[in-house]
Amino acid sequence: QVQLVESGGGLVLAGGSLRLSCAASGRIFRLNVMAWYRQAPGKQREFVASASNSGSTVVADSVKGRFTISRDNAKNTVYLEMSSLKPEDTAVYYCNSIHFWGKGTQVTVSS
Fold first, then answer.
1. Fewer CB within 10 Å, N side or C side of the chain?
2. Residue range 93-104, pLDDT digits in tens
């Protein structure tokens, strides 16, 4: 079993920045790709970014240039650096790996 715990969400003004963290524990040797998804009220969950344990990353077009994903394998943690935040970035952000999901962390961007 794998546990994923997100942290770092909060309320920020438009144009601001936040850094999300996701710490993995348990049978983490199973983890290759770790990813961030988000779900805004009334919308489907959508992919944000992913990072493999070899360092390759993928970022959704909607956040490219503003969000950066990184990973510290020694700490079993994946990060999401978010800058130039917009009100439309408001959502619950979830950490994911394989079929494991964290409980999410709320990000609210106020205009």
1. N
2. 999 998 999 999
Contacts of 75 (CB under 8 A, 6+ apart): 23
φ and ψ of 88, to 5 deg:
-75, -5
| HSE-up of residue 55 (Cα within 13 Å, Cβ side) | 0
Establish how many alpha carbons lie within 13 A of residue 50's alpha carbon, considering only the half-sphere containing its beta carbon. Answer: 13
Q: Any idea how long the chain is?
A: 111
What pLDDT is recorded for position 29?
63
**Identity of the amino acid at 104:** G
Report the alpha-carbon distance of residue 83 to residue 81 in Å, rounded: 7
Both tokens of residue 110?
Answer: 């106020």
Ranges under pLDDT 70 in the chain: 29-30
Strands 105-110 and 10-13: parallel
In sequence order, the 6+-apart residues with CB closer than 8 A to the CB of 95 are 4, 5, 6, 22, 24, 34, 35, 36, 78, 101, 102
